[in-house]
Every structure is written in C-alpha cells, then in structure tokens.
Amino acid sequence: MAARRNETRLPFVLTRVFDAPREAVFRAFTRPESFCHWWGPKGCAVDHLRMDVRVGGMTHYALRFGNGEMMWGRAIYREVEPSRCLSWINSFSDAGGGLASHAGHEGWPLQILNSIVLTEESGKTRLTLTSAPIEASEEECRIFDDGHASMNMGWAGSFDQLAAFLREKSVVLTVARQFDAPPETVFDAWLDAESVAQWMFSTPGGVMERVEIVPRVGGGFEVFERRGSQLATHFGTFVEIHRPIRLAFDFATDREQGATRVTIDFEARDGGCLVTLTHELDAQWAAYGESVRAGWAGLLDGLGLTLLGETRVAREIVQMREYDAPRELVWEAWTKPEHVDHWWGPNGFETRTQSMEVRPNGLWRYTMTGPDGAVFPNHQFYMDVAAPERLIYAHGAGDEAAPPHFHVTVIFEALGARRTRVTMTSLFPSKAARDLVVEKHNAIEGGKQTLARLAVFLETVLE
Predict the structure, then answer these.
(1) What is the 3-class SS of 115-157, one letter each residue?
(2) CB 461 within 8 A of CB 333
C-alpha cells in the first residue's frame, strides 16, 4: 500500500498546565541538563543523549528500562521558536541514529510529527501537545488512532515527571519596573556597551573595567567590574533578541559553571515601558534567591536612572579612612555585634543590635538612639559577604518590606600586616535622594564621625 500523509484524521492532542514560566518549560525540552531528568515513560532513565536543537538539527537518545533493555529514539526539528513553540519528527532509532521501527508494536508509523505550543496563564504555562503520523499508510494511521489511549497514559506519565522536575529543580524569580521611556529605548539600553557600563552589574565603589557586547543570537556579553581585589565577572549568551518585545540570555558569573536563563519582556504601557525580568535559578541556589532578586531590582533601578541621564557618581557618597590595625581585626569590628555596638553611628548616638547574620541574605537589625533620645530602627540586608575583604548590603529603616534607602559597598584593603584602608561607598536611588541626606541629615559628616569612632574603638582593642 502506498505510503502517504493522511490529512483527514484528527491528531492526538493533550494539554497540561505547569506551575512554571514558559522559559522553564521550553528549556526542559531543549536543554540536556533538564531533558534527561524527565523524558520518557516512568521507570526508565535517559542513558545516552546528544542534542542539537535547531531547525534541521537532531536529538538522539537512549532510554534504559529497569530490566536493562535499551530503546533508542531521535527527534529532527522542524520549528524552534524559543519559549513559544517547538515541533519535531519523532521516530524510533538505532544506536547510530538511523530510522527504526517500533520493536514492540508492529505497524506503528515510522515518523510522528509532534508539536508543543506554550501559552502564559497567570504566571503558569499551558502546554498543548499535538501528534500526528506523517508519510504513513492508512493501516499505520489506524494503528496510531487506536493507540491514543496508551499515548495519553505515556505522555501523562512523562508530564508528571516534568512537573516534578520543574517544582524541584528550579526557582523562578520575577522583578518588574515601569520606565518613562518607549520600549525601543529601554530595549536598546541592554545592547549598548556604553549604557550597560553605567548600570549593569555595577556596585557602589566598583570600577567597571570592561564591557563587551555582541548583539545577535549566539553572541553575548561580558561585564567585568573591579571590586577591591576581586574581579567580578558576568557572562551572557543571547538566545532570543526580538526588538522591542523580548530579550533572553543564558547567564553565568563563571564560565565553568552552568548557566541559567534570564528573560526580559518589554511591554508598551501607560505611555512608557513595563519591563518584566524573569530568572530561572537552579534549586541549589534557592537560599540565595532574595539576594539575587535584590540584585536584579537594583540593576533595574540603575537602568531607570541611566535612562533619565543620571550618572552613578552623582548618586554616590564615598568615604575612606586608614587604620593602624590588621584587616582581620577591622573586619571583626564591623561584623560582630559585641564590637560594632561600641562605635557604629555619629557622635552622640548609641547602637543596640537585635540580631546580626553576616552572610548573603542575612540581616542586621539594630536601633540607633540619638542624643535627644529619639530611637531609629535600622536594618542592613547583606547581598554579598567576602570575608575579610568586602561587604555589600542594602540599608533600610523600619519596614523591612519597603525598598532600601540606599546600597553600600565596604572594601577592606590590607596595606600591610597592621594597617588597613576602609572605603565605604553609598549609592542612592537618585541624585535628589543623595542630596537630601547630605543637606538634611548631614550624612557626609555623620559618616566621617562613624569611621573616626571605629578608630578609637580599634585603639582600645589593641591596647
């Protein structure tokens, strides 16, 4: 009987809603480190995997069952639209990647055209799978139709595994900001090296050493910032550039570590642009989630100020002092409550610590009582802790759920065995906010007095 594609039969269709963003679901189908955790029927494991997810590319895999038997399969891609849809011709295969028949089901079509379409639903993802035989005889199509029930069980079992993987293996962070600029302007700021150097991964007191951007899919960015003696590195590989709607890149801070997906959506709204940044973290970094979220929030704040024409220098207060004490001792004086309560704050202020956890995502909660008896609650949220060299934290007052008032980087630089330079850089959300604390609260003089009190305390410790 002549082989032909039967266009009149209804395809097999299955839908499922996953509690994960589209990017995470698409990545599970297209990235080997995700694919191998869920693909195939329950009770089997991916034993061999080679992926080339591009139009005309092929994924070749082997599934090993509990009894030791191996089953080979392959997928040849027809359509690849990141985070939206994927279609491929699925077939049984052999160890060499050739076409093979279904060993356990005589008459099963040699080639099945599968497609998935992903749509967003209130932060979740609806996946619609469609399957139909191609270049199949009428008998093969009939056998395929009769197999819908078993296909439903098989795919449902695989999707159960996928849902479990998405719950256990990833943490999804989302940060949004509204900008008073058109989407094209905001989008372009992510791909312009001069703009990026002003706000992307920059920290108070950091010195941007190099920014390189190759703005094409497959290209990427490199951002290097000097933070004390450390060179902070950030790398991205662009996987989607759809101006001015969406930008996606695989992000890492170390080339030797696995990358995670970051997606930025740009939406024209209220005469400006709403930016929604989604970062899919591996579950092993879940403990650092709030610190990562705060980092992205600060980055978007910096982007907003750059779009308004404000520079970092205009928003900073930089203060420096040298001490005749070893760096380790100065670090301890700054990070242990039994020490810091003795010197923190301007002249006449008394500091009392409620709790202090100097670690990434940790908090220092304390009150400062002024000369007039007024009590000021404060907290510092630690974003980066590198003992005994660097602290980066967000400073707030009172409501811990409110945005921080400013961000601070403290660099402890050893100038010898018994001398240390401390550089404290405070970065405010705007020039106006910086000028307000200088003029109204005498912030520069207050900082000088605080650092001077540390010198007196260190002298008493060293006596």
Answers:
(1) EEEEEEECCEEEEEEEEEECCECHHHHHHHHHCHHHHHHHHHH
(2) yes
- Token pair, residue 113, equals 């055209």
* C-alpha span between 365 and 374 (Å, rounded): 17
Instruction: For 63, list phi and psi in degrees, rounded to 5.
Output: -105, 130
Residues 6+ apart with CB under 8 A from 284: none
Is residue 384 within 8 Å of 392, Cβ to Cβ? yes
CA distances from 146 to 5, 150, 346 (A): 17, 9, 81
Give which of 19, 34, 26, 40 is closest to 85, Cα–Cα: 26
The DSSP symbol for 4 reads B
pLDDT in tens, the chain (463 residues): 344 444 446 899 999 999 888 888 998 999 887 898 899 988 889 989 999 999 999 999 999 988 888 999 999 999 999 889 999 999 999 999 999 998 878 899 999 999 999 998 887 899 999 999 999 999 999 999 999 999 999 999 999 999 998 888 778 888 999 999 999 999 999 999 988 998 999 887 788 899 999 999 889 999 999 887 789 999 999 988 999 999 999 999 988 777 888 999 999 999 999 999 989 887 777 778 888 988 899 899 999 989 988 877 888 999 999 999 999 999 999 999 999 999 999 999 999 999 999 998 899 999 999 999 999 999 999 988 999 999 999 999 878 878 788 989 999 999 999 999 999 999 888 889 999 999 999 999 999 999 999 999 999 988 7
User: Are the CB atoms for 195 and 201 separated by under 8 Å?
Assistant: no
397: nearest Cα among 410, 383, 378, 384: 378
Q: What is the DSSP string of 195-217?
A: HHHHHTT--TT-EEEEEEE--ST
**HSE-up (13 A, CA, CB side) for residue 174:** 14
Could you give the 3-state DSSP secondary structure of residue 8? coil
Write down the H helix ranges in 242-399: 289-307, 327-335, 337-340
Sheet holding 260-269, edge to edge: 170-179, 272-282, 260-269, 246-252, 230-242, 220-227, 207-213
Global pTM value:
0.54
Backbone phi, then psi, for 53, in 5-degree steps? -85, 90
Q: What are phi and psi of 149, to 5 degrees?
A: -60, -45
Nearest alpha carbon to residue 333 among 425, 203, 422, 393? 422
